[in-house]
Amino acid sequence: MSFQSIALVGRPADLRVAECMLSLTAHFYSKGIRTLVDPGVELAFRPDSVVPCPEAAFATRADLIVAIGGDGTLLYAARLVAGHAVPLLGINRGRLGFLTDVSPNSMLEDVDSVLAGRYTEDRRSLLSARLEKHGAESVSALALNDVVVNKWETGRTMDFETSINGRFVNSHGGDGMVIATATGSTAYALSCGGPIVEPDLDVWVMAPISPHTLSDRPIVVRAGSKIQLRMSDRFESRAQVTCDGSAIGDLEQGDNLYVEGSDAQITLLHPPGYDYYRLLRSKLHWGRGAYGRQDDNREGN
Q: Looking at 38, 48, 63, 71, which residue is catalytic?
């Protein structure tokens, strides 16, 4: 794949992100590559090194999108390219960075490897959420990580029911539910006690948030299932539905949320040496002994 036009996504208010954006635009300029940047980004770019382009048009004008920041930035970029054949490369300027796996220290070297065709393609599936409310049009959105239903009121639980493929599963009392892809298994679902799922496995995780009953545990279901979550009619409760952290609406008594697989996918690019388990060890601090050092010196650690 040839990358003649590359778009940058990030929040330049973060000086670390701004530094990376300036460095990349100068690097691409020296290689004769067009760099697309949203007109709202105000940085002291080298003259003629960038082409103003609204972010909404990145998916049709760029050959590659580079997301600079944390996983939230890459999730935002994923929404821009969902359903398009434009790959994403993530440079970590956030905290954990499960999706933005390129280190700033090796940024230019890794970018050059990608430009030279030395990379692996990693296709990730998306969830499609549809919120149906009484007397209102339904609202739909996509999610790479997760669809979350979380209670509004503090100090009380919410009551809701779940069904999978038309079969009743359970009545729940608690703070809500996370429905996560394999990609999102290391996000909110992980903090709810859900399992870590290899990203290429075709499964989803349903993880209750602070369930009132200890037996209400996370479950793994086949991707492609049709999940329904319905707010109970018996108690007054109100929840918010978010897709990858972006709110799409409220869920109230009698409302229904439907979650299923989307035909849209995104493609992540990883430079040479990418290792998912090494990423887990690094981000989750696995294998560290009592003195904070790695317990073994095997290659890749």
A: 71
